[in-house]
Amino acid sequence: MEFRPRNYTSEEESHSLPRAPADTHPLSPPSPSLLQVDVVDHGKNEFYDPLRGSDANVMVSLDDLQDEYKSSAVNEADFELPTKGWTSFKKFLMQRFSGSKMVSISPMSDVIMKSGQVREKASTTMHLEELDDPQKFAEDGIKVISQQVYVSRLHELKDEINRAWQANDRVTSLALAIKVARLLMDTSVLQFYPTLFVLATDVMDMVGEMVWQRIKQKAEFSEDGNVICSLPENFEAKDICIDAKETCSNWFFKIGSIRELLPRIYLELAILPCWRFLVDCPVDVVQRLVMMTRGIADPLASAYCRLYIAHCAQKLPQQYSETGYLIICINDIKNLLTRFLSAEESTDENFAERSKSLISLMEPTIEYIVKCIINDSNQTRAPNILVELGIGMKQTQLVGKLPCISIILHHFLKELPSELVSSNAMEIFQLIECSKDYSFDQCLNYRLLGFRISESRSQFDIINAVVDKVIEVASEYNTLDEFLKVVEAYIDIILQNQMDNKLNMIMDGIVKRACNEGIAENELISLQSIFLKLLAHFNNLEDIFTLSHFIEILDMMHGSARSMVNMHILNMATRKGRIHDPTIVQFLFEVSQSLHDVLDHSNMKNDDSQQPARLISRFVNMVDYGPELERHLAFLLECRAAFGGINDLKETLVHSSNRLAVKAMKDGENHASFVKSCIAFSEVTIPSVPSCVKQLNLYLETVEVALLGGLVSHSDGLLDSAILCLQNMDQMDDLRLPSDVDGILSLMRKLCSLLVLVPGNPQQGVTHVLRNMLALISSQSWVSSRTRTRLLCTILSLAAALSQFELPYHGNPELVLGNDRLFFGDPTYLQELLSLSASTLQNLVDNIMQEPSLVARGRMALEACNCIASSFNLSPEVLPFVSKLMETAKSCLSSNDKYLQSTIKFVDKFSSE
Amino acid sequence: MSVDLNLSRSNRIYRPNEPLEGKIVIKSPSSFSHAAIRLTVNGSVTLQIRGGSAGVIESLYGVLKPISIVNKSVEVKSSGRIGSGTTEIPFSVLLKNPGDGNSETFYETFHGADISIQYLVTVEIQRGYLHKSLSATVEFIMETELANRPDQAVSPEMVLFYITQDTQRQTLLPEIKSGGFRVTGKICTQCSLSDPISGELTVEASAVPILSIDIHLLRVESILAGERIITETSLIQTTQIADGDVCRQMTLPIYIIVPRLLTCPTLYAGPFSIEFKVSIVITFATELSKLHPKSDPRTPRPWLAMESVPLELVRTK
């Protein structure tokens, strides 16, 4: 048995492909003629090649389209306000105020209590006065029932109304509807009122719809069922026959005779669309109803009544839509609140509590009406709204006027078009300044103004003046919380307009307040947002350092807010290439340390910990001390001590120290001890990496570096550790997937290729490592028969390579002597390799024969044949193995198999030699 | 066996110069013979004296003799047979003879407390002596004929009012009197029946909180009984325009739909007259007013302030 002698240099020359210089760079943008093809491709599938410059443009435009689509979807949602919006608004109302479980009801709500009486009355005559149910006032008649009972009673009433209507007893329906509307007069139920409103207006809407349908039918069909006309969507009053008109006005007569104001308004609103049968432009009616609502003194009842006006007015055709009445509504609410707020300031706390809850109950009505105003009015009319609000007037004119109520102002500010907000920013600021009532926190309005201004570009001088004023106002706040709430909203504006001195004022303000009282949880959130904005704006650590107090405030922060800021700092710093500046490195190190300290080390797998860990590793990786290699290594040591909890970092540390070693070697002169300490650092660090595969990889990398540095004894030790690592592989759970095994296979092949360089150790025998590997291959359970075949082939190839007079490649010849030189012509050396090969060969063939699957066995046999034929001369000792393997392959695979055919040719070539 | 009267107009409103038209609907399981089918139209003013300013003696008279406006009887069908099933017989009766000229005596329908102006049409089917005659009566509503209505829609004549503690004749509660109040506004004094009574009202000041502001629509019926005129004022309808202690200096609209049947154009006939007025009543929130939640609005009370203005109702074109 003998190894096949090889001449690697001539083989490479004969086998390598002919090379010619290319005309274009493969990664440059394709020429225009190719572009068309690309576009077509692009349309067919979503594949996006990031390297193709011109395609990127196509992607961007596609994104734009999608954005447009999204924004148009939003607009559509807005337009649906009348129908869908109301339904969701009702749901929101019920959910927001679902606190109290018990409802105290006044005797006025007797329709809820005495369900029996309702039926009795239903059968009585239809005289008008019957509608006017005599009220029974009792001094102490307040009863308490559960909310559930109340609600179910209302549902019953709705059913009753429906039933009576179906039975053509419309008078009863109306009478019951009036009773339901009357319930809304009782605001003593407070928290329950919104729910009551939703349920009662459901009934109103139902009645309104039934009346509408009935009159419409009367207008379209005669009594005997003949079609009179078919009403178009936009019919006019003149299209309606006398009979239908008569019926319609009858309804208004009936409703007009209701004594109490509130139920009368609600019922007329319910059938408001029916006015269209009588007059062409029912806007005057809405206007009148708004004025009538002024007669309701109770703030809650009147606010919800106005809400119902806003809702019902939307049922009128769009051409009648007009915001005038809604503005009156809002102004009336404003007057009511002004009176209410001024009256209660003097009284006791209990009252203040009550009024707070009252305002929160009223808020949704304001919100809805304001939304309607802004939605209905187009751009040209929007300035009128401002005038109505008192914006656009001169300061002197404002003095006499009532100040705006802050909660109303808030909702306007929220809804107004952003261009209007920007162009009137100063006036709005003055309005906020004037509105100091407790219906809404003033500082939140300042805050909202800031956010709204930053939505659109606006004139610098306006903005500048407003920001000046705002900072003036904010600096009067004593608490950090209020201060932050306001300034946070203006940070964007300040940064965009480069108002540096204002930024300094803000930072001063924060430091002053934070020093006094520390930073509370909610304040941290604001601070975090401010800091992230600063970081995003400057995007450069040097600039951040020049900001006064930045680091001082950062040090005062804690918890997740601080971690978040820290992460952004790290992210920003590591995106700008290598980090050289020692002060920055020191700062980032501290940042990383504080980030590391709050990590949950027991649970590093979760996403919250992964991101910081990645960022710290990245930072360590990006640090570069340049020529100060010793210092860099010291830094790595420091990092290893400081960030013990992060596993990914250890890999980075090993890579970095290996890189340092290589760098030192390249620099030349007098590096041996430094390289040694780098290798030592790596060697010590690798065992703490938890994954065996990663360890193996790192060991191999370090072996390479050690060999490069000529540290043979180090590399021997490292190789032993790598083998040990492989032996421990079984105990680890790393090998769940076949791809993991493939990974190890390739690592082991890499190990073998390294062994070509490693000088054999005469004490342990030159094949010491190879024998260890062989033992490993047969004992480890994760090694599948296919893997084993390949590994055995690799070892055969390695043995063949080592036997050559000239090795295929060498390490640094000055530092490491190759085996070809070391054992040149030594027969024992060759003998050792041959005996190892013989047992390996036997092993290989046995292993293949045991494979149960035919195809797999055939393939493995071919692989082995190729390996054997290129490693050995086909001497009589080897030939039986080859022919046995060829027979196996032929019996297992079809004769057409290309691999089989080419292998046959290959083997024949050598056997004929 | 039944008989019904179906008038041609569903709202049953007719004018003196228009024929009263409709159908007599007879439903019978078997055919029967009849002597004649007669239709009688009867319009009259019923006067009644009770309570009010009437003295003991007058009230003894009770119902005065009704004043007849129209009484007509026509034979729709002479004797014959009516078949089984549903039979419809159309009719048309002239209310006013063409030669009569003046139709002012056809007062509009009105249902008051003491005075009632009513128009009825009755169908009677006589069936000989052995059978009870069948009959049905339907009220129809009389309105002034278009030609006799004022040419133009009445210009709403507004009257300004102001109500303070000093305009009240009755004694007010001391806190109301001393605290003072001032409610001003305007309200129309002449109003078309087809239009709402309109106006506005502003609470300028009130020391005592307001409980409610209501507008009462009242009718004033006067009857000439012998030498005396007996007048009675009664409530037609109450409409609340303010509920609770409303904002000061805020204008509230007055908008009251005039109810039908219960009103008619203001009428001065010889033996009787029908007039209307509105009264604005402010109820203050005091302990006393809570004890008397429903009191007669005509009676002055110490927790009420009121102002009445006459209202002329007219039927316009």
UniProtKB/TrEMBL annotation, chain A:
This is Uncharacterized protein. The lineage of its organism: Eukaryota, Viridiplantae, Streptophyta, Embryophyta, Tracheophyta.
TrEMBL record, chain B:
It comes from the Eukaryota. This is Uncharacterized protein. It comes from Vaccinium darrowii.
